[in-house]
Sequence to fold (222 residues):
Amino acid sequence: MIEENVKKLLASLEGGNCFHEPVTLVAATKTRSPEEINRAIAAGLSDIGENKVQEFCEKFDLVKGGNRHFIGHLQTNKVKYLIGKTCLIHSVDRDELAEEIAKRSLAAGTITNILVQINIGCEETKGGYPLEEGLGVALALAKTPGLCLNGFMAMLPISEDEGYLGGLCEKMRRLYEEAKAQIPTIRYLSMGMSGDYRLCLSHGSNMIRLGTAIFGERDYSR
Fold:
């Protein structure tokens, strides 16, 4: 099933998003075993994303290949475990975290690629900067030693109103375009999960984070 899902998804993404931009498929591998992840990589998947630092570290040497992303909420005291091991941190949602990543990166003699997380639905249960602060934050982080700003990440709220959700996606795309015009390293708008990725792609996302669509339903008892 995993192999078939990966191949179907990659084939469906060949045409890119609504702007015909290439789309990066990141497998959300929370609770997934190294064996399952390796099967997805063998089927053609190139990017994998973990939500928890402990899982990231436990699986790091057991997963064969793949670009390693961190896509979950990140505590500042866990940053040290990711530096030099991840190709992209999606969830930079506050100044304190950005400062810690920059400090740890400089100390390690490396540069860490990051995305600014935007709380596009203004949800109290989710982290992220308000949309109206996004450009200013991006411009500041783009000048911060130890960091390389690659774009933005957002999670849509749960809603049956596709018009509302599409409007939120369009706001994110406008922010992405405005920042990209001023920051040459910006290339990703990471937006879309298994339940809403098609909507996000139709409004300009060029990176999606899929778990269930690749691996099936999660077993949280594992």
The chain has one domain: 2-212. The CA atoms of residues 105 and 146 lie 5 Å apart. The helical segments are 2-12, 34-42, 53-59, 95-108, 134-141, 162-180, 197-201, 212-215. Strands lie at 24-28, 47-50, 67-70, 88-92, 112-118, 147-154, 188-191, 207-210.
